[in-house]
Amino acid sequence: MNELGPRSVPRLRPGCRLNPPGGAEDLLLIPEGALRLKGPARGIVELCDGSRPWSAILEELTLRYPSEDAARIEADAVALLTRLRDRGAMETA
What is the CATH number of the domain that holds 71? Predict the structure, then answer.
């Protein structure tokens, strides 16, 4: 995943998936194991389904969290996706 641009379309890499919702923990299952997702991380990953550009994902996040600063939402989401990319779980088209 390169720098996220407005038209970048993030998605999970093949072999990676979220565990079913409603479990004791939110997990991102990757070939090497599982990554624990905390706070809004699951919602962010769910939005990165390969069907919408980064700009639409950010717009949706600002609607979901209206009391948060938009710049902080973007910074936190970029940080999460960067960590997932570094673990081999996320890519962009």
Answer: 1.10.10.1150
pTM: 0.91
pLDDT digits (tens, 9 = 90+) for 59-73: 999 999 999 999 999
Higher pLDDT pick, 38 / 1 = 38
Q: For 28-60, what is the HEC assignment? A: EEECCEEEEECCCHHHHHHHCECCCCHHHHHHH
Cross-strand pairs, 27: 36
Task: Count up the domains in the chain and report the number.
Answer: 1
Tokens of 68: 């948060």
- Please report whether residue 93 resides in a domain: no
Query: What does the alpha-carbon distance between residue 4 and residue 11 come to, in Å, rounded to a whole number?
Result: 12
